[in-house]
């Protein structure tokens, strides 16, 4: 029995040695392949390793910043859809959404004050709450809030349960019923997922303003002001200190990142 045991152990040692040699040879081959790829010339004077070295490292969102919007409803004109069209075009939603089938991340709401007859028009979108109920009810963690206050949906783990749609008091989320092929690569969308305004996070991360804000300014309305609510020196923070502003559904104490002036 001992002899069989010794033979078995010798066989195992031999297998381990062969496996080790194979592993070393595989490692050397893989390293050689990586070296070849790293120095591969993609075009005259351009090598893959140079592209990798030149790519800036992704910066994480910082809690030192809280992005927000201030919307002056006295400048927002009834019938103007510039912000809606810009959002649709930027995010691959289509400039005009078909009711009940296509998503609309921002919509215009017309209000009328019964006592005075005063009419108002304002855009409504995800309010990017500090305490977002959509995040609280999400069973998979697909709904989440970045450190800088932007509320997003991870489409990789969204199961389309639509609890977040029911929890949102602003009706700011929609369900993707149809497949979409003509998309902005920076804003992937998926059938069977829930989605909503992202504040054009892809633009923010490269130092630009949301598409709706840019369109409003380009049209000469200047009704939307974007900036860092945590920075007392920012234009949005200064404006909030100077004028009376309010938030939608203040009674819910959600601390939205979208403020309204003149409401």
């Amino acid at each position: 029995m001992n002899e069989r045991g010794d033979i078995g152990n010798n066989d195992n040692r031999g297998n381990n040695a062969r496996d080790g040699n194979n592993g070393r040879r595989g490692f050397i081959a893989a390293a050689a392949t990586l070296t070849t790829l790293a120095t591969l010339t993609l075009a005259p004077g351009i090598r893959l390793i140079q592209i990798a070295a030149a790519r800036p490292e992704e910066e994480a969102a910082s809690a030192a910043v809280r992005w927000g919007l201030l919307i002056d409803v006295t400048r927002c004109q009834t019938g103007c859809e510039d912000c809606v069209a810009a959002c649709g075009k930027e995010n691959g939603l289509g400039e005009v959404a078909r009711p009940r089938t296509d998503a609309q991340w921002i919509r215009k709401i017309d209000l009328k004050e019964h006592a005075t007859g005063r009419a108002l028009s304002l855009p409504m979108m995800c309010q990017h709450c500090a305490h977002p109920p959509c995040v609280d009810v999400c069973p998979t963690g697909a709904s989440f809030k970045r450190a800088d206050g932007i509320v997003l949906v991870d489409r990789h783990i969204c199961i389309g349960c639509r609890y977040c749609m029911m929890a949102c008091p602003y009706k700011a989320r929609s369900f993707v019923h149809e497949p979409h092929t003509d998309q902005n690569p920076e804003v992937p969308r998926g059938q069977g997922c829930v989605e909503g305004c992202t504040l054009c996070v892809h633009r923010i991360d490269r130092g630009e303003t949301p598409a709706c804000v840019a369109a409003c300014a380009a049209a000469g309305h200047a009704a939307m002001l974007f900036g860092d609510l945590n920075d007392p020196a920012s234009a949005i923070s200064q404006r909030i200190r100077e004028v009376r502003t309010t938030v939608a559904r203040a009674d819910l104490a959600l601390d939205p990142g979208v403020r309204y002036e003149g409401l």
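The chain has two domains: 2-54, 67-261. The first helix runs from residue 2 to 38.
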